[in-house]
Amino acid sequence: MSSSIQIQVQSLAIKPVVPIGCEQPVSETLPVVVERIVRELQPERIVLFGSYAEGTPTSHSDVDLLIVLDTDAPLKDRSWEVSRLLIPRPFPVDILVRTPREIEQGLAKGDTFLCQILTSGKVLYERRK
After folding, report:
1. Which residue in 95, 92, 96, 85 sits closest to 33, CA to CA?
2. Which of 4, 52, 78, 118 has the most CB atoms at less than 10 Å from its CB?
3. Handedness of CA 76, 72, 49, 103 (dihedral sign)
């Protein structure tokens, strides 16, 4: 695993919760997932949001990820593009994939959900420019 990815994910001090039906805590498997996504898709950013980012996950929680990816793929195909990399799934996950332009447009329109993700979410990976 690249050291920058490992450092960012480990510095979050994710609560070591084992989701129902899983064998390992998310804190152990999330760095591997992030590395795989980065290696295969070269996203601009990966943001953890929801209960894991807030430090309140339970065994029933899923992992919520926003992936910022420069792609021409239709919206309906993007999550599958990421999801296929996670087979078999190491934990329950909800994946949102948005382009940088969609992020800009959403923020300009005052999309409160997107604003909340970007202000209270935890950046797991950000491409150096």
Report:
1. 85
2. 52
3. negative
Q: Any idea which residue has 């202000």 for tokens?
A: 119
Give me the residues paired with residue 122 across strands.
48
Distance CA 14, CA 60 (A): 15
Q: Which DSSP symbol is given to 73?
A: S
What are the domain boundaries of the chain? 3-126
Closest C-alpha among 62, 74, 75, 71 to residue 33: 62
Report whether 22 contacts 57 (CB < 8 A): no
pLDDT 10s per residue in the chain (129 long)?
A: 455 555 455 556 677 888 988 889 998 899 999 999 999 999 999 999 999 999 999 999 999 999 999 999 998 899 899 999 999 899 999 999 999 999 999 999 999 999 999 999 999 999 987
- Alpha helices in the chain, H assignment, sequence order: 3-10, 26-41, 51-54, 75-83, 100-108, 112-120
